[in-house]
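## Example pair
The file below holds two records. Each record gives the amino-acid sequence first, followed by its structure token line.
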Amino acid sequence: MKSIFALFLFLLVFSHSLVQSQTPFWQQTQGPGGGMITSLTVTPNGHIFAARIDHYLSFGGVFRSSDNGAHWAEADSGLSYLHGPYGALHTDSYGNIFLVSDTDIFRSTDEGEHWSNINTGLPPHVIVSMLINSQSGNLYAFFDSSKYGNEAMYRSTDHGSHWSPTSDQRFYNSSAALDSSGNIYVYSVYRGIFRSSDEGTSWQKMAPLTVNDFSDGLAVTKTGILISTNSSGRTIKRSIDNGASLQTVDSNVNTTFMGPTFIASNGSIFIGLSGTTTHTSNKILRSTDNGTTWIGLSAGLENLPFVEANSFAENAQGEIFVGLTQGVYKSSDNGDHWVDANNGLLLSACSSIIEGANGHLFAGTDYGQIFRSRDSGMTWVLASDGLEFFPIPRVIVFGNNGGIWGELSLPRFAATPNGHLFAGGLGANYLYRSVDEGDHWIPIDSSFYSRTIGVDKTGRIFSEAYNISDQHEAIFRSTDDGDHWTKVGTPAGLDSLYVVSIVSNHAEHIFISGNYYSPSTGMPLGSAVFISTDHGDSWNPTSNEIAPYAINTLATIKNGTGVFVGTDSGGIFLSTDEGAHWKQVYKLFDSAVTSITLHPDGSVFAGLSQRIIEQDEGIGQGPADTLGGDVIISADDGVSWKSIKSGIKNIDGNGVSAVTATTNGYVFAGMGYGKGGGIYRGFKSLPLGVRETRNSEAACWIKTIYPVSSSPILEFSLPQGGEIKLEIYNETGEQVDVIASEFFSEGVHKVSWNTEKINSGIFFAKLRTPNLSATTTVRVVK
């Protein structure tokens, strides 16, 4: 009986260990949601599709909702290589879905499950607009003749499989619309409005327009009234005679740009507004009398700090959907009120994450949005009421022990020990403060443009800013919760430094890091780290070992004098003497260390925006990837590092822009720009392999003494003697050499690599023992 019980106990423990080892470290949270939605469409069976781009105007994915916007899921198989900045969706009566992106048109015939390119017959130029004739089912694609000189309109009569030009008529930067009879209207810059009644074969010039009559968009109502918007003149015009003439119906539209015009099934006309930067501005215009009068709509959108309304759609129930810079919003009452419909539309750019004084989490994302989580990061809600600017918020936080728990490359956001939050950013006229966990934000200072914020353990707030009065960079300090600010000591070199990080250690010493740029070319000129031991009254430069590399982030070691620095191409540096000396503890050539955070157990996490090879899966697992990301961890103060990214979707497409460890032991990773995204949460306890590293691999390491050389020398350390292999792999994972395969004693050893038969390039040296392994990068230059 005892042997049976023992066997049962062994199997129970073994199965538990097996499940633990197979469980991904990271779990995707339910947010934040949103992103810039460029286009919406609804298929005949009621599926809603949304196209998104990220902040740098690259493709951010196509999403589908099968429950009227309650939930969204990715639906873009076949579009992974898409790089165009523009995404316009269209649906025909046959259920075909079309995506226009830059110079390409894609089609899906199975509700977005698969997409294929349908450019046959089209010129390789940017497509400015597309229409679908609901009567004939034919497609029309329009180009800008002023740039390319080719025919402006192409037509497809077989659902996009083939295209051909319709005539030699040329249009310039055209916008187009169809009426219910199939007539096509096209606006051409400086030329006026044209109409075709034979699907583009011939054209008739209608209303002549002047330069001041520039039209951003056209739409035709069900009664045949033509609506034209003009952002430069802030006017709305209409035609009741099929485009023969245009009359102004509104000449004082309060916006910097007018977006799309949409005609609802009940005849209501909606116009999206762009560049509405304050929470009191109208976001959308509506007319219910064929464009005679217009009213502004913003109920439910007031708290959005920056709005561009890019697209509209309507489902069979008459609900109106609008695509904004902050995702999708829905109205069930003809636009009078709008509600968030972003569940599943995970943001592709989370620039920062912090933990507040009470343990709640805050995340900064695109377009001035700040999100809050009160359930350990699993769900997120918008907390941006009162913010009136267009930044990418970046967050830092003061740790209970004086350390910085989450510090990132473009700080815009900080938390003080009393729980108050501060936000600033690019384009901000004010520094903002919230005393109620982000429910409301109030501007507190307009004398400088705040860009980077840090807080010490006593609550002193430091901000690097552009001083409006003397037009120079400066450091400001507040000792009264941001009510008043004083310019503090600015030594030579700091007044021209673009500061990216401000952190404090347990001794209340303040570190500032940043980069220098050429005022004429904008090219980087080096970097620097400064330290103040008197609360900012004076500053001194630290050692200059990091100067050749651009700096992205700083983080202080808990209860110590150590500081980690993450760079753009030089990896991670560590100083254990407050900057008197810096040591490179993690080497990178083509990757950026975007963020560094300290776990409560002393481990260090770092987020990478690129990586060279899958170090956690071993060399030889596939081609090198230079456009991805990673999270790495060190359990021994930076001596050795492991990759830890299991569970993160599309990490090689996004990169990691933020990592933060919280006081309760969770770790959070925010994704960078690209398809997919959101925030991931890691286990409270570290994975088994990392825990083992602390005990058994601390003394096993390998490094390149001359990282760029024609005759590299490798140095490695063994915790105990034994047989080892030292192998060299190229960037594709192919083994190209074996330097050593023999017995080595315990301790540190050096070996040289004969590269006589090796071409220049990047290689990876992997040290293997029966139980341990370590890897380093080697660059051969001849």
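Second record, same layout:
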Amino acid sequence: MRIHASADSQRATQNIAEALHANAVKSQLIKARTVVLVAAIVFLSNIGSPPHLMDDVDAVQAQIARNMLTSGDWVTARLDGVAYLEKSPMLYWMMAASFRVFGVYDWSARLPLALACLVLCWILYRFGRWAFDEVAGTYAGIILSTSIGLYLFTRILIPDAIVTLSITVALWAFLRLLDPDERQPVRWSVVLGASLGFGLLLKGLIAVLFPALTGIVFLAACGEIFSRSSWRRLRLPIVISACVAIAAPWHILAALANPPYISLSLYSIPGEYHGFTWFYFINEHLLRFLNRRYPRDYNTVPRVWFWLLNLVWLFPWSVYLPTAFGLTYSSRSRADRVRLLAVCWIGVVMLFFTFSTTQEYYSMPIYPALSLLIAAGLRSNGRLVSSATNVLLCVTAVLSVCFVTLLIAVRHMTPVGEISQALTQHPEAYTLSLGHLSDLTLNAFAYLKTPLALAAVAFALCAAGLAIFRRAIAPVIVVIALSMGIFFQASRLALARFDSYLSSFPLAQALAKNPPGQLIEADAYYAFSSVFFYSNRTALLLNGRNNNLEYGSYAPGAPKVFLDDAQFSRMWKGGERCYLLLYGGDMVHVRSVVGQESLFVVAENGGNYLLSNRPVAASGKN
């Protein structure tokens, strides 16, 4: 009888354990799906157009991917037939694969980056769950997916969000390898090496440098820098082998395809060509870090703003950052070690760029670390959390009032023509990612009434929700996430209103409606890059041998796509129909070269022109 009772008890215990495990798995699936759903709403709902791909880097990246797909050359990136050697190829490959599957569209160009953001938020959820618990992991994923910075800087086709993913995976794998209880160390060694390898193919050496320096600083902080057991757990031969196997082939092929193979010159000057290896490693990495790279087609954010703006990029969650100060940072527990790693992670990235040239989005790799710290602070749900919620309530209420005030100020203004007419020009700021924000005027907000109203509603709802639920952290998280989802839609509508100013898509439409002819651009390729993407055309470049295509233009066998004034004048006055893409500010110079009588306006957009040397059936102003 006792034997039967014991067996029944064991079965009951087993059934309870299985039920608890099933419930835990179900809970994990629900929270993981929640994070992915929030990220999908934020990123996938914003890949369509308008807004169209912007001039400058946005359309350039997409066109390089298309060129790779159509040419079959997956090693050397090219624009207008000229070798473009400064960037790693992984983002191009991802977009080209998307083009092959879905066709060449602006949304299919944006799809890989949006999907990478989803994976990043999901990985951070898994990282946080492993480090802290299920709830903190969920918080971390939602914080990252609804912060302003990750949304804002993925409106442009740059690889930094995907690099952030590779760095996050690398550092998670690093911690797992150091954990003596890790059951699959070989697998995580391969993951670490693979993430470093893919990072090299995304952004170059910093994708390895940041995890490596963070790991070294972390080991030093833990007192393990000279610990043989810690270094053995990392299984560096496996890590290095995986990294090299992934990253080395492209680097070798690119060097072979673009000789000379070796040059150690530390001078970056116009007119010289030293091959891929010199330009990519010395010019783009070393000399750019030292601010001695040529061409100098970039700018740098003042250091104090580079640090302080992270409070904006992590908004609205940055108000909770002080809650992390009450947590412990040591090597005693897994949670402590993750928090300590996050601090090392942030310090390495920020200090590196403090001594280098910087753009606003260069701090993106620290967003996951900040999200983990904020999630851990929110999980504590102490007095600091309540205070931060009250601060956010006040901030969102003030923001709502500011947007309403702007609406009232422009309520009687009637937008006339394009938004470009209500903007100012600050070309000296355009080498920064957000340089165009300096062009805003009060009159410009008359074109943005709907986005302003939607933003006001978003922050008013946030303030009201926080006032109601401020003592319960889970509803607060939901309120903030919902409000930011609405705000991001307002941002998308605002970008759509700026479409004609930031993109030359209407000029591409006008070009397609007119007879064939030789296309010429009166500037560097970047100036009207969206025309080239949407029309799938190449062009001759008038006085455009500068910036990003200058170096490749000196390569042996480079195409002769650059014109001076004399060559342009002969071509424009010849027998062939020609079209010219022209900034409005350059009109005076072009008139002096070919005369007003041979300039016929095909279309105008945002103060810029598509001209022809022959009369057109119907000219338009878009």
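Notes on the second record: The CA atoms of residues 343 and 369 lie 7 Å apart. Strands lie at 78-79, 82-83, 518-521, 540-542, 562-563, 578-583, 600-605, 608-612, 620-621.
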